[in-house]
């Protein structure tokens, strides 16, 4: 027997900003369907590891994520 779920999903736009040290060098926007803004943020950060901007040769590579509702 399968439990029914009443979790509603929403579309979010998440902007992932890429940095080399303190210098911002790129932004990649993701559209994510998720139950919460936190889950959308986590999904986008996970997806960003496949971005062309995620290059291990970049010194001090880091990223931040900002969630917007779509």
Provide mean pLDDT, rounded.
Answer: 92
Strand-residue proportion: over 45%
Gross morphology is elongated
Structural class: alpha+beta
Strand order of the largest sheet: 2-1-3
Radius of gyration: 15 Å
Number of strands: 3
Low-confidence stretches at least 5 residues in length (pLDDT < 50)? none
H/E element string?
EEHE
What are the SSEs and their pairings?
Elements: E1 10-20, E2 23-34, H1 37-47, E3 61-69
Antiparallel strand pairs: 1-2, 1-3
Characterise the protein shown here.
The protein is 16% helix and 46% strand. The chain contains 1 helix and 3 strands, in the order E-E-H-E. The radius of gyration is 15 Å and the shape is elongated.
Descriptive keywords:
single chain; 70 residues; alpha+beta; 3-stranded antiparallel β-sheet; 1 helix; 16% helix
């Amino acid at each position: 027997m399968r439990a029914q779920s009443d979790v509603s999903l929403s579309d979010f736009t998440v902007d992932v900003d890429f940095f080399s040290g303190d210098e911002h060098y790129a932004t990649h926007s993701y559209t994510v369907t998720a139950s919460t803004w936190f889950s959308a943020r986590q999904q986008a950060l996970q997806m960003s590891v496949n971005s062309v901007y995620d290059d291990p040769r970049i010194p001090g590579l880091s990223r931040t994520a900002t969630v917007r509702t779509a």
